[in-house]
Design brief:
Helix content: 10-25%
CATH topology: Thiol Ester Dehydrase, Chain A
Number of helices: 3
Order of helices and strands: EEHHEEEEH
Radius of gyration: 16 Å
CATH architecture: Roll
Structural class: alpha+beta
Number of domains: 1
Number of strands: 6
CATH class: Alpha Beta
Shape: elongated
Strand content: 35-45%
CATH superfamily: Hotdog Thioesterase
Distance between the termini: 24 Å
C-alpha cells in the first residue's frame, strides 16, 4: 500500500492491527483519531514539512484545537484502510481538515468522518502564532 493524493485529497494507508481493536475485533473508537493524526502528519511530510524541523527551525508546533467526529461503520481487525486528509480552510493561525477513514477498496461509504481544527502555536510559549506564508502557499 502506498500513499496517494487525488485532487487535493491526501490518502494514507493503514492496516488494522489486533492492538487497534477491542475484545470484539472492532477498532476502538479513539484509534480512529490516531489514524487521522498519522494521515495529517504524512500529508505535511509529503509537502516537505517535517514537524520536528518546523519546531526547531520555525519555532512552531501544531496542536489539535477541536475535533468533530462521526462513527458510521466499524473497522475490523486486519482490514486495509485509507485515511484521507484535506485542508478545507486556513485561518491566520489555524487549519481545518476534513478527514475520512475508508476501506481501501471502497471510498463511497466511509467508516468514520471528522473535522479537525489544528492550531499553529509558538513552540516556546504555546500561544497562537500565524501560519508561515510558505506553508499556507503549499496547502
Amino acid at each position: 500500500m502506498e500513499q496517494r493524493t487525488t485532487q487535493a485529497v491526501f490518502y494514507w494507508p493503514v492496516r488494522v492491527y489486533y492492538e487497534d481493536t477491542d475484545s470484539g475485533g472492532v477498532v476502538y473508537y479513539a484509534n480512529y483519531l490516531r489514524f487521522m493524526e498519522r494521515a495529517r502528519t504524512e500529508y505535511l511530510r509529503s509537502l516537505g514539512f517535517e514537524q520536528d524541523r518546523l519546531q526547531r527551525e520555525a519555532g512552531i508546533i501544531f496542536a489539535v484545537r477541536s475535533v468533530n467526529i462521526e462513527y458510521l461503520r466499524p473497522a475490523r481487525f486486519n482490514m486495509e484502510l485509507e485515511v484521507s486528509a484535506q485542508v478545507v480552510s486556513a485561518g491566520r493561525a489555524s487549519l481545518e481538515f476534513e478527514q475520512q477513514v475508508l476501506e481501501a477498496d471502497r471510498h463511497d461509504d466511509p467508516l468514520c468522518a471528522g473535522r479537525i481544527r489544528i492550531a499553529c502555536l509558538d513552540a516556546g510559549s504555546f500561544r497562537p502564532r500565524a501560519l508561515p506564508d510558505y506553508i499556507v502557499k503549499e496547502i
